[in-house]
């Protein structure tokens, strides 16, 4: 049986052996062969049925020993299962935290995209207002609107820069395009 580490989380390593149905069939075959050999040996060497019964009674302690070993094996299995579930819980919590972080970064990225779109809209509107050659009172209105849009765009630019820094810092080692 080969034992290989398959999972490592939080310093804990689980090992799983490749113990397939062929191994189980071989083990069952060996146990059956030993049992058949014991029965044949007892019948061969002890022909009297009463003596065979007395000989069988001497294996009561052995029966208790194997029952105790089976119980110990069951306890070991439960302990291993508890450890595996603990490692799985740690992995599950780590994945949950990473998913929440990724969701937050995605939401910030979506906000960044929306604000960038709004900035483009301001740029288009400012370009139209700059090219507008109105005169008189309409020119004053165009100038006021252009100044207001320029101020809003500058404020939006600061927000986008801050949000971009937050998104980039949240990504860690991942690349930003």
Helix-strand blueprint:
Blueprint: E1 3-9, E2 12-17, H1 21-45, H2 49-57, H3 60-131, H4 137-171
Antiparallel strand pairs: 1-2
Textual characterization of the structure:
This protein is mainly alpha-helical and 177 residues long. It has two domains: 3-96; 102-171. Helix content is 80%, strand content 7%. The protein has four helices and two strands. The protein has helices at residues 21-45, 49-57, 60-131, 137-171; strands spanning 3-9, 12-17. A two-stranded antiparallel ribbon has the order 1-2. β1 and β2 (12-17) form a beta hairpin. α3 (60-131) runs antiparallel to α4 (137-171). The longest helix has 72 residues, at 60-131.
Summarize the structure.
The protein has four helices and two strands; from the N terminus they run E-E-H-H-H-H. It is mostly helical and 177 residues long.
Any key phrases for this structure?
177 residues; mainly alpha; 2 domains; two-stranded antiparallel ribbon; 4 helices; 2 strands; disordered N terminus
Q: Biggest sheet: strands side by side, in what order?
A: 1-2
Q: What would you report as the Rg, rounded to the nearest angstrom? A: 39 Å
Uncertain regions spanning at least 5 consecutive residues: 1-7, 9-16
Number of helices: 4
Structural class: mainly alpha
What is the H/E string?
EEHHHH
Helix content: over 70%
Instruction: Outline the biggest β-sheet.
Output: 2 strands, antiparallel
Number of strands: 2
- The global form is rod-shaped
Supply the number of structural domains: 2
Mean pLDDT: 81
Distance between the termini: 49 Å
Strand content: 5-15%
């Amino acid at each position: 049986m080969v034992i290989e580490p398959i999972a490592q989380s939080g310093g804990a390593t689980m090992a799983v052996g490749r113990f397939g149905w062929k191994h189980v069939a071989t083990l069952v075959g060996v146990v059956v062969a030993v049992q058949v050999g014991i029965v044949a040996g007892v019948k061969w060497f002890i022909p009297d049925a009463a003596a065979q019964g007395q000989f069988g009674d001497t294996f009561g302690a052995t029966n208790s020993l194997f029952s105790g070993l089976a119980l110990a094996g069951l306890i070991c299995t439960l302990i291993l299962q508890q450890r595996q579930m603990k490692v799985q819980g740690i992995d599950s919590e780590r994945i949950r935290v990473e998913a929440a972080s990724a969701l937050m970064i995605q939401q910030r990225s979506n906000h960044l995209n929306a604000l960038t779109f709004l900035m483009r809209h301001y740029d288009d509107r400012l370009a139209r207002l700059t090219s507008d050659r109105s005169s008189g009172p309409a020119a004053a209105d165009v100038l006021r609107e252009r100044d207001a849009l320029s101020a809003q765009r500058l404020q939006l630019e600061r927000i986008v820069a801050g949000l971009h820094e937050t998104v980039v810092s949240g990504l860690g080692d991942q690349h930003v395009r």
